[in-house]
Amino acid sequence: MIKIGIIGDIGSGKSFVAKQFKYPIFNADLEVNKIYKKNRFCFNKLKKKIPKYITSFPVDKKQLGKAILNSDNNIKKISDIVHPLVRAGMRKFIKKYKKRKIIIFDIPLLLENKLNKKKYILIFVDAKKKDILKRLKKRPNYNEEIFKKLKKFQLSLEIKKKKSNYIIKNNFKKKSIVNNVKLIKNKIINYERSGS
Fold first, then answer.
1. In 10 A of CB 110, how many CB atoms?
2. In what order do the strands lie in the sheet with 102-106?
3. What kind of architecture, by CATH, is found in domain 1-24+99-196?
4. 99-112 pLDDT per residue, tens
């Protein structure tokens, strides 16, 4: 099984790139949303750690945003509760798709949380700052202050780029992304096949 991690800046189009591989995807953002909506264990833990913000189930993401803005320490408290649950979801996903040739991981903090084992193939999605900003501003939940705080907990893009096996330039034009993904996918499959 080939495990591919898609990494890059917030809003760089990682999820769109991941979908073009046409293989099962573990999307950490969707997993986190599911945890907030359905996991009472998570809710109880958060309520204990940040009671001022977590008052009702399911977890209100706006309240979490307020907690993050209030203190960097709250980001750590939230992460310490949520990330082990994401990790458990990841293990289930790997087990479920263990017979597939390739599986994709779309996880913003893949490197920061040391979720990638050495065998992961890393693909960095490279997009222009102005294009990223334009897209972020269209998001209904966009809050510049929250994004700035979250970025402080991420490795620099230069480090992520250096650690990557491949780089995909994202100009947000579907045709070029599809072609780039096809090229990289073939390279990866051929490389694995040759046992290099």
1. 22
2. 25-27, 102-106, 2-8, 121-126, 166-169
3. 3-Layer(aba) Sandwich (3.40)
4. 999 999 998 877 77
